[in-house]
Amino acid sequence: MHSVTVRKGPREHSLHSITWTDDYAWFTEKENPELLAHLEAENGHTAAAMESTAQQQKNIYDEILSRIEQTDLSVPVKEGPYLYYTRTEEGKQYPIYCRKHHSVDAAEEIFLDSNELAASQDYFRIGVLETSPDHSLLAYSTDLEGDEDYTLRIKDLAAGILYPDRIECTYDSLAWAADNRTFYYNVLDAARRPYRIFRHTLGQEATIDELILEENDERFRVDIYKTRSSDYLILETGSSTTTELRICKADGAERSFEIFRQRQQDIEYSLTHQGDWLYVRINDRGRNFRLIRTPIDNWAESAWEEVLPHRADVYLEHVTALKGYLIVTERVGGLRRFRYRKAGEEQWHSLEFGEAAYAVGLSGNRDFEEDTLRYVYQSPVTPPSVFDFHFETGQHELKKRTPVPGDFHPERYTVERTHAVSHDGVEVPVVLIYRQDLDRTRPHPLLLYGYGAYGANSDATFSTSRLSLLDRGVVYAIAQVRGGAEMGQPWHDEGRMKNKRNSFLDFIACAEMLIDRGWTTTPQLIIEGGSAGGLLVGGAITMRPELFGAVLAHVPFVDVLHTMLDASLPLTVGEYEEWGNPADPEHFFIMREYSPYDNTREAEYPPMLVTAGLNDPRVSYWEPAKWVARLREKNLKHSEILLKVNMGAGHFGASGRYDRIQEIAFEYAWLLKTWNLI
Predict the structure, then answer these.
(1) 504-532 burial by CB neighbour count: b if 16+ within 10 A, else e?
(2) Which terminus of the chain has fewer Cβ atoms in its 10 Å neighbourhood, N or C?
(3) Has 531 been annotated as catalytic?
(4) pLDDT of residue 254
């Protein structure tokens, strides 16, 4: 047993006639030197346990790096008179932001070099990156701790110098007004919730910025953005289930924002501007949303015209407008498609894709005047590929496919989509990726991934690092459990709040199916999830510890009850509509029943590798640390349960690309060691 995992300062809780003790409550004392020493000791213990894999880690690192074009550039995106793109250079951790005037043959202008900003920093992340409408100024923000608290600066791109303006504690949205001197931005409260929108004029002190909106309901966060037409500013106030939007012209005048539609619990909507119309995606008549339009100068519901009705089998995910075309992103049967129609016409046309499983999304459509649609397509066997779709000709023009140097051949791999039947008869999609020459007459090591929360989708993307597992005979599987929205918004509803146990039971059903069909065996089955996906694997291992061979849990949200009881923590109040509010007895007892930390009992647990970030504002480091301590205490087996804490980062781990590959190599070496493949 780990020598520094000890009981110290337990804390007693009482609620709804229940009293319980949290033996490891002292882990929350981040400034306590003993706690920091404990975490460092955990890292030392993990490093010692993995010392024998040092060469394998190096081999995997070299493999992954060999499949990456280290010096590369993105496809330029047209915006105004410039073509914007990013470059990477071999040996440098971060992207370089560049542009050219009018033509790809013009001289390159580097307008921001992340590597210079990140020099001497252990962590570095860009937040907002927005040029002014005349492209003379750049607003950008940086996070140097991993706590997602950004500092905003303004750069004069012609002179290459910074304005004295410096705004602390900002978050992730910013929108310029048309005067090129005014912008709007959001800031954080003590619980890391974006709750205020300010209006700033260049040269003035941030302390006198005009407060545009303060949202006092802690379930809601605020964002500010501009329509693609650049004509309007949208101020969004939203919770997990409810939206209220304000709109005003973006001409730089000191105008007030007008509410488009008053907030109504469980009604979400978004706005898209095109010409004389506002298009409204709204779920007032069904969870999968419908599309209506209303004149730009008349928002009364009596003026609304329905463009697309609500459909039970089609999830309307997103609406995009260019000057001449309206585009909708839809999800049917778990897979995404695009449909579009020409302005002034009624007929819709579809863009659909043929692989069994894939991921596709719009990207880079910054110029409202364009007559092409840019999208990025990928699948487990197709590297990310940038296409321009030409509306008039129907041509899909491949602009770039991410190069994969070395011995990569897509035909060596197979992707298939199947289903598992859950406890209530619901079919749960499962994507399988494996070598085409895999011997299907016997079981193999298998890594089963899942997430299942917030309506986020676990689509089948490409991964250069995953090839290191596939080429060693590992099968990779994605369980698209309830809690995501792969099958529409009702799929999310069936895996949240009082229905959260469905996510765990779906995941267990996927594991049982893979074993029953001979893909793998319990000792060969490792499960993986991060954040809310860490809760997924934590819940599954709590329910069925005997079913799984090992667990890889990244920054797992496993101390659900104590976190949701602490309204001062980031995200807690805003997530009552995802997990429930424990002040409500029904919600309390549901969470108490599945929270992995609270339900860790004496059992034979398999090997585990659990990660954490000391500065993580989303899942506090103490959640995985407490869970590991309790797992070791209750484990009736001599399996190795390791904790690895990044002492200088947050939720997303290392920020530099080479550092991130080191983390992956470490985790892959642990997987291979656990499978006895090294």
Answers:
(1) bbbbbbbbbbbbeeebbeeebbbbbbbbb
(2) N
(3) yes
(4) 75
Domain boundaries along the sequence of the chain: 26-65+407-674, 71-120, 123-262
Q: Indicate the SS3 state at residue 632.
A: helix
**Active-site annotation holds for 189:** no
pLDDT at position 6 is: 47
The third-level CATH classification (topology) of the domain covering 123-262 is Methylamine Dehydrogenase; Chain H (2.130.10)
Give me the catalytic one of 531, 595, 620, 655.
531
Q: Which position among 165, 616, 620, 655 bears the catalytic label? A: 616
pLDDT at 66: 98
What pLDDT, on the 0 to 100 scale, is given for residue 7?
55
616 is catalytic: yes
Match 């997530």 to its residue by tokens.
Answer: 575
Annotate 276-297 with three-state secondary structure: CEEEEEECCCCCCCEEEEEECC
**Can you name the CATH fold of 26-65+407-674?**
Rossmann fold (3.40.50)
Spatial separation of the C-alpha atoms in residues 53 and 38, rounded to whole Å: 24
Does residue 113 register a pLDDT over 80?
Answer: yes
Cβ density class 470-490: b for 16+ within 10 Å, e for less: bebebbbbbbbbbbbbbbbbe
Digit-coded pLDDT (tens) for 484-542: 999 999 999 999 999 999 999 999 999 999 999 999 999 999 999 999 999 999 999 99
pTM for this prediction = 0.97
